[in-house]
Amino acid sequence: MPGRHRPEILHHGAVDGVTGSCHELQLGDGRSILIDCGLFQGAETSASGAGFERLQFTQPVDHIQALVVTHVHIDHVGRIPYLR
C-alpha cells in the first residue's frame, strides 16, 4: 500500500553477547519505541574499565515515544539513567 512504512528493528545491545539488551522498534513514521535499555556485563566488559563507554547511550532519543521494559534485570534496565 503506498505511503505505508514497514517497521524495522535496530539493535543497540545484545548483538554480540547476551547482556546489554536494547532494541529500537522504528515505526516508520519518524517515531520509535525502545525495548529495554540494559547494562553490558561480564565478558562484555573489562576489569580495566574499558566497558565504561558502553554505559553511554549515544543514539538520539528525541524520536523515542516510549520505553518498554520486558523485565527488571540489570542487563535489561541498567542504562535507563543514561538516556538523554
Automatic annotation (TrEMBL):
Signal peptide: none annotated. One of its GO terms (molecular function) is RNA endonuclease activity. Keywords: Exonuclease, Hydrolase, Nuclease. Residues 19-83 form the Metallo-beta-lactamase domain. Pfam families: Lactamase_B. InterPro entries: MBL, Metallo-B-lactamas, RibonucZ/Hydroxyglut_hydro. This is RNA procession exonuclease. It comes from Thiorhodococcus drewsii AZ1.
